[in-house]
Amino acid sequence: MSQSRIDYSGLRRTLAPVSGRGRRSGRRSPSWRVARRVGFWTALALLPIVLLIRGGVLAYRVWDLGTWPSLALAAIGTASLLGLYARWISRRFGAGVGSRTRTARMAFGVALAYVAYALVFIASANVKSAEVRTEYRSMHPLLRVASSALILVDPEAVVTDAGRTPQDYRRMGLSPVEASLHFAQEDGYVHAMDLRTEGRSELRNRGIQLGFWMLGFSTLRHVGTADHLHVSLRMPR
Fold first, then answer.
1. Nearest to 192 by CA among 226, 218, 213
2. Three-class SS of residue 114?
3. Over the stretch 66-119, which tens digit does the pLDDT of each residue have?
């Protein structure tokens, strides 16, 4: 009994290009890979700032660790993270063990130096007046570090107000608000500041407001004597 066979070789050659196109169509496009890589590096760049500020606010408001322990914990965590970044990057460039260790220590020190700088200094271009600049050190340390980070992102940001007294409200024609966080609180620090919104794009103002909110601060866009963004740090829960 004879056996007949069907030759599929021609059919395979016909379908091969089609199946190849199908596999290729499932791959990510080059633009998608670029976007994913940009997103990854952006997240890595922002993570230290988020850890420093959001971590400090979390330790202060939720864990109730106190002002300086909260800031110290957040600062050491951020410095350690930057040290790991430096060690990883130097390793990718082929640095030896000794060089990687020195680079990590340098990054750790730079992070702590930045926190110390943020606590004591704000440029005159970023405050409305010399009086506000004098009030800067009366602000809560976490609020000072946050305002310094804001200036890194938005060099044109201006703090228009920080500490106030009941007489300040009366001069503005407003009734003093006893619960105002512009007054020195139980810990001795002012827990609020106002940021200029006039002469700036609405997109930028909303972006800054969203950023402070995501970092754990309370924000309120309102009109007192002038349109401004009110940013405050609530007391521990």
1. 218
2. helix
3. 999 999 999 999 999 999 999 999 988 888 888 889 999 999 999 999 999 999
Dist CA 66 CA 76 (whole Å): 16
d(CA 104, CA 210): 32
Contact yes or no for 184/140 (Cβ under 8 A): no
> What is the dihedral sign for C-alpha 105, 69, 135, 160?
positive
pTM assigned to the model: 0.82
**Which domains, from first to last, does the chain contain?**
34-120 (no CATH), 124-237 (3.30.1380.10)
Our measurement of the distance from residue 3's CA atom to the centroid of its chain's CA atoms, rounded to an integer in Å, reads 76
Q: Are 119 and 147 in contact (CB under 8 A)?
A: no
- DSSP letter at 196 equals E
Burial of 52 per CB tally in 10 Å (0-12, 13-18, 19+): buried
